[in-house]
Amino acid sequence: QVQLQESGPGLVKPSETLSLTCTVSGGSISSYYWTWIRQPPGKGLEWIGYIFDSGSTNYNPSLKSRVTISLDTSKNQFSLKLSSVTAADTAVYYCARDFPQYYDMDVWGKGTTVTVSS
Amino acid sequence: QTVVTQEPSFSVSPGGTVTLTCGLSSGSVSTSYHPSWYQQTPGQAPRTLIYNTNSRSSGVPDRFSGSILGNKAALTITGAQADDESDYYCVLYMDSGIRVFGGGTKLTVL
Predict the structure, then answer these.
(1) Mean pLDDT across chain B
(2) Which H or E element spans position B38?
(3) Of B36, B40, B87, the CB nearest to A103
């Protein structure tokens, strides 16, 4: 079955760019929205955005100016870049598969913790 | 700015029935928002319980059901069990394509 695995630095300095990658195994990249979601410590889930297999993207308006999601189909990976980070960006970051026909984020990675601190 | 509202906390007795709701700060939730519900236990990634208003995800017990009640989406747990004690999140799909999570409900079973 499809599995997702997040990877990237666990510590990022303020004002720098957070970069994470999600590797998709056991399935195809085609026909899904590949999504990033985050959860600050002790708080709720926040949808960051997605990229479709065509390369089209959609971002949370509150993060749009700082977010880029990209796709590398040759490696079955998609990536998140979040620029100009502050302590408020400290969170567990999840990647997920969003199944558009069913309106279901049906497969999630285990999540990776990113701390923003100098 | 769209705000999706959920009860911050709820309590249910073992064997009891509880209905959690998912609303909009302005307007009504309908099937057009395709509400979905996720369960999250501490340290774990969320898992789908209900998608597209009332479709139960594979392997989810039938004591979980989704619906629209009045102007909100609803998740009903019938015959609550101790291991239902979790955080529950709804998500709405907007016309623009963006998804918006509710703030989550912490359910206690006692």
Answers:
(1) 97
(2) strand B36-40
(3) B36
